[in-house]
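Hi F.,

I've been meaning to write this up properly since the lab meeting, where we talked about keeping a consistent format for the predictions we share between groups. The idea is simple: the sequence comes first, exactly as it goes in, then the structure tokens exactly as they come out, then a line or two of notes. No screenshots and no reformatting. I'm using this chain as the first example so we have something concrete to point to.
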Amino acid sequence: MKEFKNKVAFITGSAHGFGKAIAQKAASRGMKLVLVDQDEEALNKVTDELSKTTEVLKIVADVTEENNIYDAVDKAMDQFGEIDLLVNDAGVAVPGPIWELPTRDWEWILHADLMSQVYALRKVIPIMMKQENGGDILNVASAAGLLTAPGMPAYYATKFAVVGMSEAVAYDLQAYKQDKIHIHVFTPAFVQTHLMHSEEYRPAKYTDKTDPYYQSKAFKMGQEMAVKDLTTGLPMDTVPDTIFKGLENNDFYILTHKGIAPLVVKRAKDAVEGKAPNLADLMKYPDKTHTDTTLTEF
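Output, unedited:
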């Protein structure tokens, strides 16, 4: 994507974190915005800020509901007549071992982090197929879609799914000769996002306050781990330039922490050689997931 001015960006999860930062950058590049989020108060603030410099359509919606995504896309098309950049950013994080994590938490993260993207892709790709200039799609995944570590199997599962889905969609677009639609997958490691506040936005349908898990040691440790990891990550203001440079270069993978490269390569090598994940081996690597943005030789 080379030109941004007067183009339309449709961004989910736009009240906080990456979505908000991408919206701010898009506005600075002259894009019109469709901002979608379930946090109405925070979304109002972002809308008030960005509507001073560009045209903004605000849509309060829970993206775990399929029809909410479809309705939001319809509203965007009614107002702007096109969607040039789709940013699938909405997501949550739920730590905890699989033998303790309630299945409702799996349902929540699968619908928020994966199925919300499926809904948007199903609705927006046919629109982009009809547009003269096609469009660009940015699926927000994570370094957790390229490598694994203990503590968050549900999060890793959804992010690997997003990466795999994005690759498969890229193949399908090529197979159907849709060379004007460009897909990208954003795979950041730890950044100072709003993700550690996921519990504040848990929908009622995924809530059961009587479940003892939410008072358990595993749950509390997971929340503490999230705070530690995210508050020591990259500052958010370093990220939008990386994303927009990736869009301009038509990069498929857009990474923030290239220091994770040895871990990604080792995982692939272990798979080819039939080796099981080894925690002791993993812990030998310096922590590349917080602030290392350089490409390490391997």
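Notes:
Residues 8-256 form a domain with the Rossmann fold fold (CATH 3.40.50.720).
The chain has one domain: 8-256.

If this format works for you, I'll send the rest the same way.

G.
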